[in-house]
What we know:
It contains 1 helix and 10 strands; from the N terminus they run αββββββββββ. It is mainly β. The strands form 2 sheets. A 5-stranded antiparallel β-sheet has the order 1-3-8-5-6, with no helix packed on it. A hairpin with a 5-residue loop joins β9 (156-168) and β10.
Amino acid sequence: xxxxxxxxxxxxxxxxxxxxxxxxxxxxxxxxxxxxxxxxxxxxxxxxxxxxxxxxxxxxxxxxxxxxxxxxxxxxxxxxxxxxxxxxxxxxxxxxxxxxxxxxxxxxxxxxxxxxxxxxxxxxxxxxxxxxxxxxxxxxxxxxxxxxxxxxxxxxxxxxxxxxxxxxxxxxxxxxx
Length: 177
């Protein structure tokens, strides 16, 4: 993925459907924490690569989550990229979080976890490798586990991208991104 951030599964689906994949129903992106319940900060913005809008959590919600439901597809996650806040070193960057996968939204498996991670201290973009897992999953969830680097529960994502393989449930075609 070097120099190829944000050209993975989410971009593939966006190009294939020619639009925001949340708005056109390809996937559903939701959160338990949206700043001021304002639609301008909805997590659907993280897959709108041609736009400069962003997702921002609400500072009063501990353990904020962003949930990606692939609906009629499943994903084998190998890595992911995030573009975080563009507000410098102590911006609203995630500091401690987990990435979890599931097929039923009840049983979650942690595939990546970070505690006091400084990846966003020198750059707003970082890519992370997940635990090796050959399974395909319908749901991917980011869950904040501590305050951001701004010492608040508020955090920002401009973009999120997933890399691995995608299978559409209605066919056996497997797409590697």
